[in-house]
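sry for the spam today, last one i promise. struct tokens for design, 737 residues
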């Protein structure tokens, strides 16, 4: 009893430690690789964002936010030019008549274009009083003699004055984005702007716009995002009532809403002062949109302008260019090719509706992770492997619903990826640990069974069938693929075996095969089956691996024969045939008896080529397909051997002999006479038998044991004496095995 109790306590402690280590490890990895985790967190949250949009539709849309768009329709009618600044000047003037409270021009005009028109634009903004013309901050790295061009003194003075007019109270320091220079509007327009504001919004690494830098540091002061300044003015929030806590939130104190209701607004921000954008809906079906063309047509229609006053009075109007040519588009979590001026309206709506997306604080993350650790540890201790697996799977699914519900209903964003991976890592670690403790004997049995089975059915064979072990295979499992087939056979084995006792036969074969098997595996192949004394091996990758294996097999045979010669035993010889082609690999048989096998013409042809080795006195014969698939045939000593028609084939093939596979004198001389042999073969196949015979005789004198040369000498003599038909192309027919 005491022993069982000690075991239980030890394992309970280990399970808790496993869970703690998993969460600590993921937290550490998140700190080391924040970009990776943020990327995938964003992608997951985007999916939840789309899910929210699907089931809930648009958020509440504030009716006081209006878009005034320069669009493709207006441009295509040639009634308006996108480069005509007077269009915007007239638009601002009309909006002033319509009692629009704030006007945002989402365009920066750095240079003057036309003195009259530019003056008109600046004057229209000045007349309205709360028109905002943005600057574009730039973050520039420079060193040495590289300098940033200073601003025009007049602009510098205007910027300094505007910077001084609106500065928030920083209560908690952070790591804000710093700008070393800004692209301003031309002086008159900049002066007409109701303060200095920026429109610098950049996408995340994946090209999706999710965040707005609400404050950018410039000359040790802060330039607000254009709509932050707009909303502060709109809700009558003084700069002294704007408190900034980097990494937490920006507080707009005493914001005055309709009917004089005052509230404090907390805008969540990160350490860089960025807010996650809460998109109220897609571009086309969210905020009110008016065409600039439509508004300009009413310029002289007092009656219709009066009718529109109710729509525009006290509103915030965002004037922007959303033409295709303007290219002011980007991807957001819920829509591709979203007009980026929509970021302005969504920020305004988020503040006015006090609806923000908020990341989990450090404290909340700790509480969430500790809760998961306690739950997993508790059930990991109580439940065995299968029950815990079911619980963990169920709990994980519920956890996904929990994360989704947090965003859909409460606009909260936990670190989903870190929590999920921590959860899965902990759960899997507990499962593995319990499995090792509880099922060790079964595991050992399965491992032993699998090891035994792999000796009968190669592991590589199962892998090609996508099976982990022999227990998973079923009748009819099959796959078609291209491989190189190697057939190796001991010559005259029947005669050799007849002089040995049964035990001696098996000892001899096992001794031989134990030498050959490792060579095949070392060259990337696997043995499909033994057919008596023959070896059939498959090579799934480069045919060169198979050719090299054949060469090594022949060299290993030399070592094997040396050992036998020392013992006074008979030396043996082998032939090897190689062919590459498509084959079907699978399981055949019936319910009571299965067998893994390979079915293909490629197998038959490799076997036929092995059979020809004895006829040609060759150690290794490869097909033309194999030769052409070699990445670099020059790495091997290979000579063309013949054109043959073998049993079971309707068309002839070229065959080649690999001749650098043995240190014996005949093989060495084959390498030395390779070029002569190929020249003679060329003459032979072109019916120049006398010339070919002369070279073959020369080769025979140098290497009288070259059987292939002797064959061609006899053929040349026969053809010289008997002649050949006009359609003769030098094919040797071999219809026997």
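last one done:
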């Amino acid at each position: 009893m005491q022993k069982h109790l000690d075991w239980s306590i030890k394992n309970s402690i280990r399970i808790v430690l496993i869970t703690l280590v998993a969460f600590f490890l993921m937290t550490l990895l998140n700190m080391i690789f924040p970009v990776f985790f943020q990327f995938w967190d964003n992608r997951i949250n985007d999916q939840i964002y789309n899910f929210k949009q699907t089931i809930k539709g648009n958020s509440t849309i504030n009716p006081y936010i209006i878009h005034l768009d320069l669009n493709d329709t207006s441009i295509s009618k040639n009634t308006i030019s996108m480069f005509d600044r007077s269009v915007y000047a007239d638009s601002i003037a009309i909006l002033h008549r319509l009692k629009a409270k704030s006007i945002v021009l989402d365009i920066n005009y750095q240079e003057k274009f036309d003195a009259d028109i530019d003056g008109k634009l600046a004057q229209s903004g000045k007349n309205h009083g709360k028109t905002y013309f943005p600057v574009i901050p730039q973050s520039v790295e420079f060193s040495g003699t590289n300098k940033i061009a200073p601003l025009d003194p007049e602009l510098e003075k205007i910027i300094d004055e505007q910077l001084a007019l609106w500065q928030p109270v920083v209560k908690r320091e952070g790591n804000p984005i710093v700008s070393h220079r800004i692209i301003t509007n031309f002086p008159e327009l900049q002066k007409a702007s109701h303060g200095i504001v920026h429109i610098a919004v950049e996408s995340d690494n994946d090209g999706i716009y999710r965040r707005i830098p609400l404050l950018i540091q410039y000359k040790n002061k802060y330039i607000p995002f254009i709509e932050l300044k707009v909303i502060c003015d709109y809700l009558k929030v003084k700069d002294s009532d704007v408190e900034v806590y980097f990494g937490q939130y920006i507080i707009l104190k005493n914001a005055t809403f309709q009917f004089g209701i005052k509230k404090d607004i907390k805008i969540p921000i990160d350490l860089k002062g960025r807010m996650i954008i809460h998109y109220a809906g897609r571009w086309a079906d969210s905020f009110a949109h008016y065409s600039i063309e439509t508004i300009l047509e009413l310029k002289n229609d007092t009656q219709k302008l009066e009718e529109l006053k109710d729509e525009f009075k006290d509103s915030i109007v965002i004037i922007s260019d959303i033409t295709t040519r303007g290219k002011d588009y980007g991807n957001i979590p819920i829509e591709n090719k979203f007009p980026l001026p929509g970021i302005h309206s969504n920020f305004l709506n988020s503040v006015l509706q006090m609806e923000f997306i908020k990341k989990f604080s450090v404290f909340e993350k700790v509480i969430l992770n500790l809760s998961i650790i306690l739950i997993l540890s508790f059930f990991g201790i109580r439940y065995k492997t299968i029950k815990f697996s079911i619980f963990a799977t169920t709990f994980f699914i519920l956890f996904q619903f929990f994360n989704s519900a947090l965003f859909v209903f409460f606009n909260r964003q936990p670190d989903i990826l870190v929590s999920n991976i921590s959860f899965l890592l902990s759960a899997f670690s507990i499962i593995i640990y319990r499995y090792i403790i509880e099922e060790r004997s079964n595991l050992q049995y399965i491992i032993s069974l699998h090891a035994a089975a792999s000796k009968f059915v190669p592991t590589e064979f199962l892998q090609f069938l996508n099976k982990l072990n022999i227990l998973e295979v079923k009748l009819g499992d099959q796959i078609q693929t291209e491989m190189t087939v190697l057939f190796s056979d001991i010559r005259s084995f029947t005669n050799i075996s007849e002089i040995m006792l049964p035990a001696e036969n098996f000892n001899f074969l096992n001794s031989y095969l134990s030498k050959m098997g490792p060579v095949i595996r070392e060259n990337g192949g696997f043995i499909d089956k033994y057919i008596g004394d023959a070896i059939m091996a498959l090579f799934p990758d480069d045919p060169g691996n198979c050719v090299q294996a054949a060469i090594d097999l022949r060299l290993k045979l030399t070592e094997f024969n040396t050992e036998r010669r020392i013992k006074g035993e008979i030396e043996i010889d082998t032939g090897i045939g190689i062919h590459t082609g498509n084959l079907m690999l699978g399981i055949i048989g019936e319910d009571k008896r299965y067998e893994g096998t390979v079915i293909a013409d490629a197998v038959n042809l490799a076997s036929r080529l092995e059979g020809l080795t004895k006829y040609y006195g060759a150690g290794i014969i490869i097909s033309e397909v194999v030769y052409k698939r070699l990445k670099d045939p020059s790495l091997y000593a290979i000579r063309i051997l013949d054109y043959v028609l073998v049993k079971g084939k309707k068309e002839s093939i070229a065959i080649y002999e690999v001749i650098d596979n043995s240190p014996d004198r005949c093989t060495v001389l084959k390498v030395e006479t390779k070029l002569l042999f190929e020249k003679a073969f060329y003459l032979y196949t072109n019916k120049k038998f006398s010339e070919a015979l002369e070279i073959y005789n020369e080769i025979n004198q140098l290497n009288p044991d070259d059987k292939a040369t002797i064959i061609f000498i006899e053929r040349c003599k026969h053809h010289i004496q008997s002649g050949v038909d006009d359609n003769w192309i030098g094919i040797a027919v071999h219809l026997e095995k």
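Residues 60-354 form one domain. ok im logging off now
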